[in-house]
Amino acid sequence: MSSHHRVANQLNLRKGISGTILLGLSILIIACGPSHEESSVDLSGYVIAEDFQLQPIVAEPLIEAPIDISFDDQGRLWVLEMQGYMRTLEGVDEEAPIGRILVMEDLDQDGAADHTKVFLDDLVLARAIAHVYRGLLYAEPPNLWFVEINPDLTPGKKTLVDPEYAIGGNVEHQPNGLLLNIDNWIYNAKSAKRYRRVNGEWQIEATSFRGQWGITRDEMGRLIYNDNSNQARGDQVIPNLLYKHGFNSESVLNTTIVDDQRVFPLKATAVNRGYTPGTLQEDGKLIAFTSACGPLYFQGQLLPNEYQGNVFVCAPEANLIKRNLLDDLPFSLTGQQAWAGKEFIASTDQGFRPVNLKNGPDGAMYIVDMHRGIIQHKAYMTSYLRDQYISRGLDSLVGMGRILRVTARDDSWTETDLSQVPLPQLVDSLSSENMWIRDRAQQMIIYSGDEDLTESLADLLNDTSSEVPRIHALYCLEGLQTLSKQHININNMLMHPRLLAHMLKLMGDFGIKLTNRALGDMIALQDSTVDYYTSYLLAKNFNGSAITYLTQLLDRYEQSRWIQEPIAVALQGDLDQFRNSTNGYANTLDFIDSVQSIPPPEEAAQVIWEDHLTLGLTHYRTHCATCHGADGKGIRDLAPALLASEYVSGDPRMLIEVLLYGLQGPITVNAIEYNFSAAMPGLKMNPQLTDKEIMEIGNYIRNAFTTSPQTITEEMVKALRDQDRPADQTYSQQELIKKYAPQ
Fold this sequence. Notes:
Blueprint: E1 4-6, E2 11-12, H1 13-17, E3 40-41, E4 46-49, E5 53-59, E6 66-71, E7 77-81, E8 99-105, E9 115-123, E10 128-132, E11 135-140, E12 143-149, E13 155-162, E14 176-180, E15 186-189, E16 191-198, E17 201-210, E18 216-217, E19 223-227, E20 230-234, E21 255-256, E22 293-297, E23 311-315, E24 320-329, E25 332-337, E26 345-347, E27 354-359, E28 365-369, H2 383-391, E29 402-407, H3 423-429, H4 435-448, H5 454-461, H6 468-480, H7 497-510, H8 516-524, H9 528-540, H10 546-556, H11 561-571, H12 575-580, H13 586-596, H14 612-623, H15 625-628, H16 646-649, H17 652-661, E30 662-664, E31 667-669, E32 672-674, E33 680-681, H18 691-705, H19 714-721, E34 731-732, H20 733-740
Parallel strand pairs: 30-34
Antiparallel strand pairs: 1-4, 2-3, 4-26, 5-29, 6-7, 7-8, 8-9, 10-11, 11-12, 12-13, 14-15, 15-16, 16-17, 18-19, 19-20, 20-21, 22-23, 23-24, 24-25, 24-26, 27-28, 28-29, 30-33, 31-32
Helix pairs in contact: 3-4, 4-6, 5-6, 6-7, 7-9, 9-10, 9-11, 11-13, 14-18, 17-19, 18-19
């Protein structure tokens, strides 16, 4: 491990952070709670890249099961807990109102959080928070709420932003993220909605569906996300340029950024379906991601230059954090793992469950460590994983949680309190090397509504020295609603294609046209990024002269789909004029016609993730758990075990028959004989249960209590329901064995 080192043993919260943590964690409110003198965090099993330090900012007993954090304008750390999630193997009392949003306090001002203040409590599986518009946005299914923050850090006026933010579905598959992007819209993972507040009114728009857990963005505002087995997916273009007709691109949206999904844990870990070939190495270590989450595009001054613009990804199932390098080429946002055979952070502590990563006001990286034994939801937990949790003692690991801070060097204690920065100086903060500072300064400028900042923002927009601050200035003007044609100097933007891309999109949306000379200058650049967004502008403001430039672009890219897409989306009803002005390009015209035929969405789409295993769990708890137990182990003198039962793991038709018609004793399960006085009733007699719901129960039982595949279908249930057998004629063991015995 030449480039990695182990973190020192027993880093006490005070000792590990004294003199280093920034942000003014100290706040004015004294809250009851244990002092950090009572807590220490053992990081002896953690291995981190050489010359980095890993510090615990706050840990149990001050917090439990954190899943998200956010920093306010003063740089104070806020923590969202999801205490109700999988406290037991059965997931009992999952919807108990025990979640909280906490503000961290440093009463002795030594740089370490030593107390907490409860901002909101009694939350049920709340899943995301974000400080926006001088208040707090938080998601508590099914609702998305915005709450104002009083000066004494108590909740103020509460506004329901979206009553359908996260309806139904499994807790692992509900919207989350709340990322305020550079374009002034708030995006989410596992969602097809975006949000914005303008003049005090909340707006909701449709957007492309993205990701599973966690979302981040690069400097240009392109979104990066993932799913459990693909660590880094993302968009090659800025959001919603292609979402005008409900059209989702296959060429530049939801593309794989990093193909390599391998992980390199320090030891064998408990993973779901580890019995499946290709999941584990011979030594039991996980081969590839199965629970990728919490991606972060990092940019902050407390990590070296070579770490700027890297994408880090959490693998809680393997107790590690992955580092990826990006190759930022036009329409090829791709990357690769930084190292083969090792990770940025890995731990032998199986309680280390990183679920989210954040940039901090101080320029450090922050890790949200849920630090819980059970992280797989009951709906998907196999009997194999259940046994793994028990054998490793993870089923009893509750009541813990940490926020960790990563820096590359010792840093002096300096406060980051943007609330005290005069508004004119916030414009200077748009040039900070810290992404968090730039984003927060942009938000504060827009929220101020101060149109007097327009001149200084326009000066920054046309400053030719740096690209990223100019993009921020552009969207500050857009957010203040003072952006006008007079602020646009294309000649000053030609060398900065990413800035030009944003400007061209906004010009298309606002109906601002370019002169033929400016168009000629841009096309002469022969820059694919500029060409892409130019095609959008030309098609959005289509007229007779635009065809000359559009055909030049089509000729240049040989009618490639990626250049056809922005044209097709932007034309908006001008297809006939385009067709009449064009000779040839039949392929392009056909594609444009197909996109134009898609009816525009009337409102933001509501995506509900209702998977069959989650529904099966719900039905099982209602109709089966009373007798067979939440854990499937059965109840003495009442019902036999389902766990590893041959009736469950065998021919799926046998399980369906038992579900439909019931079973009477005596029966033998796992060599244990049961003889019940009453027979199990069949679900066929229950008019409230459909074939689909019985299918869901059967597949859940097979997943949760055996290693058999979930192969039950509605058609199988219907065929066995429709057989010539009375609904009240229960099966005997001998009858089932005779019918389904292997031939």
